């Protein structure tokens, strides 16, 4: 056996005799197992629940009786966002963003029913998941197990014995790295099993699961290198422990938590009330379909009369009220989209600010990488909002077209005074069955890999810096041997 493996094996024997190392390792393994089981079960339960509610919403919409088409526009419809397979590993922002949207005419509603809004404030700290355990808790265990790998030997005076036996500083460091890397591999094992299970049971992409494993292996490898480096640079085991705990608190707790506050200050978002007021102001500016003297709709009416070569809206081959509804929805939907895209742009700016803090915290980098590969990042939520809005517009315009084609202008105007007209404007309910069901299309693997690339690049930079610091520690250790 090589000297490096011998030193690593000796450290493993010492760790096996340490009550602290035993307790820390067993507790984290148990917690990781619980996190994997609960996260996967929560993902499966949430998906089953959302699928059941979606089927119920589709059934309720299709089961409506004969109605006026515009009644169905205001009756609305619900759509639910299914969770990706790897949400059982990293739930990402799902708890914060909401999972369902009520779709109706003339409005663009926000998503509702996020878990954080319905639970205690503790949920804001982080959900118990394999990703959370690896990002936050696994480095802490590596610190408690490895802080004294070199510093404690320096205090006991056993480092010089290694020099007597012909061991160089580089060999000592590699032996310690191998010893602590073995512990990191054990800590990574439950997450690997969870990813394997999701790949088999939930048809998660194997490539994404492998890339997640590599990313977290690099993150734990960074902490292994950092722990050994700090232990080599400090004079006492106590000093190494305090330095590493401070480093862990700043990089995994403080920086990620203050990142959102910094981003909000640098790229503030308007409140929902401010946005609604601004939208209503712009709606009155671009055109009011209920105002017969509105310039836009007056020009719209004149254009229709000229196109069909008639002098009155009663003589149009289509129901003028339905055509006005279609034009009004086109204008409002375009306005909603502009405001939504402006909101997305501000959110991207906030994300850039937070991701910029990855240069101060590798936890931010690995979190960005993890959510992107799992498909649970904010961009995945934006995809759902865009697809839900496109679906809403399709439904509403389809119903408005039915009003224009299947309901006469005369009956439409007399439906509140003439019972027969009121009966005739209620069209056959088979039309509700023609509305397609909502199908969410998640991001492809290539798109998710591109989204994860910045986090992977920053993590690689951290690894290079850690390797450089390890080289300095090797020279310092060489003087001590």
Automatic annotation (TrEMBL):
<protein>
    <submittedName>
        <fullName>DUF3526 domain-containing protein</fullName>
    </submittedName>
</protein>
<keyword id="KW-1133">Transmembrane helix</keyword>
<feature type="transmembrane region" description="Helical">
    <location>
        <begin position="451"/>
        <end position="474"/>
    </location>
</feature>
<feature type="transmembrane region" description="Helical">
    <location>
        <begin position="177"/>
        <end position="200"/>
    </location>
</feature>
<feature type="transmembrane region" description="Helical">
    <location>
        <begin position="206"/>
        <end position="233"/>
    </location>
</feature>
<dbReference type="GO" id="GO:0005886">
    <property type="term" value="C:plasma membrane"/>
</dbReference>
<dbReference type="Pfam" id="PF12040">
    <property type="entry name" value="DUF3526"/>
</dbReference>
<feature type="transmembrane region" description="Helical">
    <location>
        <begin position="240"/>
        <end position="259"/>
    </location>
</feature>
<dbReference type="InterPro" id="IPR021913">
    <property type="entry name" value="DUF3526"/>
</dbReference>
<keyword id="KW-0472">Membrane</keyword>
<dbReference type="GO" id="GO:0140359">
    <property type="term" value="F:ABC-type transporter activity"/>
</dbReference>
<feature type="transmembrane region" description="Helical">
    <location>
        <begin position="132"/>
        <end position="152"/>
    </location>
</feature>
<keyword id="KW-0812">Transmembrane</keyword>
